[in-house]
Design brief:
It is a single chain. The protein has five helices and no strands. With 144 residues, the protein is an all-alpha fold. The chain has a domain at 27-120.
C-alpha cells in the first residue's frame, strides 16, 4: 500500500467516524462546559488551600518572632501560638517536621540565653570593700 492510498483510507475512516458522531454534536458543548467547570473548581480548591497554608505559615513566623522577644510574656505568647497552630489542620507532615526543627533551634537559643544570663556576675547589693568580705566570711561560717 502506498502512502497516498493510506492517507486516503485514513481520511475516509475519520470522515465516517465524524459522520457517526454528528448526532451527538449538540451535547459536545455541554461536555466541554462540564470539563471546564471541573477544572475551574479544582483550581479554586487548590488556590484556597495554598492561600490557607500561606496564611498558616505567616502566623507561624509571627509566633516564632514572638518567642525570640526579650519579654517573658512575648515568649510565652509565642509558644502558646505555636502550640495552637499545630492543632490546626492546614499543615502537612513536611510543615510539622520543619516547624519541629525550628522549635528545637528556638529552645536551644533560649536555653543558651538563659545560661549566659545565669553565668553573668550579679552586682552585689552590699557595701563594697572590707565590710562585704567580712560579712561574706561570717555568713559562710554560720552556714557550715
Amino acid at each position: 500500500m502506498r502512502v497516498g492510498e493510506w492517507l486516503r483510507d485514513t481520511a475516509d475512516g475519520i470522515a465516517h467516524l465524524l459522520g457517526l458522531l454528528e448526532p451527538f454534536a449538540p451535547y459536545a458543548t455541554a461536555v466541554v462546559a462540564f470539563v471546564a467547570a471541573a477544572i475551574a473548581l479544582l483550581n479554586l480548591h487548590h488556590r484556597r488551600q495554598a492561600d490557607s497554608r500561606a496564611e498558616w505559615w505567616r502566623r507561624v513566623e509571627y509566633a516564632m518572632d514572638l518567642t525570640r522577644e526579650e519579654d517573658k510574656v512575648g515568649r510565652n505568647t509565642g509558644m502558646q501560638l505555636l502550640n495552637h497552630l499545630l492543632d490546626d489542620e492546614r499543615w502537612d507532615e513536611a510543615d510539622v517536621k520543619m516547624l519541629s526543627d525550628a522549635n528545637e533551634i528556638l529552645i536551644s537559643e533560649l536555653v543558651d540565653k538563659l545560661t549566659l544570663a545565669a553565668a553573668e556576675p550579679r552586682p552585689s547589693t552590699g557595701p563594697p570593700g572590707l565590710f562585704r568580705r567580712l560579712w561574706y566570711q561570717a555568713t559562710r561560717r554560720r552556714s557550715k
